[in-house]
Design a protein that fits this description.
- The protein has helices at residues 45-62, 84-91, 93-99, 133-141; strands spanning 16-17, 21-26, 31-36, 66-70, 103-107, 115-117, 126-130.
- It is an alpha/beta fold.
């Protein structure tokens, strides 16, 4: 079973949504959440880029310093020739820096062991991969 954040009126307000994603604020952690949906099983790299760019724009516009990516239902497989990594470094990471992002967390599901991730190329923020939203919120508030 996948875990979703506890419902509050604030987190129900989707800022962007379609068949592959939903972006919404998480009031308890004062962060912005990108939740990938089951539709990601059929999305393209261009869909992935479109959603990531929209998320980064919202992070930058609203100056979020913490972001959460819910990958529990993420099913897209990147091909061997995918240019998503270099594209992300050019188009997404600078927007996170402009916003002042300090922490980014990925929620994988309750059976996942929490771990710190190495910083990606040019990243100036901490990244963690975690099992639950409670773990993420505890880390973000520390």
């Amino acid at each position: 079973p996948t875990e979703t954040p506890r419902t509050t009126e604030f987190c129900l307000m989707a800022l962007s949504e379609d068949n592959v994603h939903r972006i919404f604020p998480d009031d308890p952690s004062r962060s912005l959440v990108l939740e990938w949906k089951e539709g990601t099983n059929n999305m393209t790299d261009d869909d992935f880029k479109r959603v990531n760019l929209r998320f980064a724009e919202l992070v930058e516009e609203r100056k979020y310093t913490a972001i959460i990516i819910n990958v529990q239902k993420f099913g897209h497989k990147f091909g061997p020739d995918s240019d998503v990594g270099p594209w992300r470094n050019i188009h997404v990471v600078p927007k996170y820096h402009n916003a002042g992002v300090k922490k980014m967390a990925f929620v994988h599901g309750p059976n996942f062991d929490d771990k710190e991730a190495a910083k990606g190329e040019g990243e100036q923020y901490e990244t963690r991969h975690m099992g639950t939203f409670d773990s993420v919120r505890n880390w973000l508030s520390a």
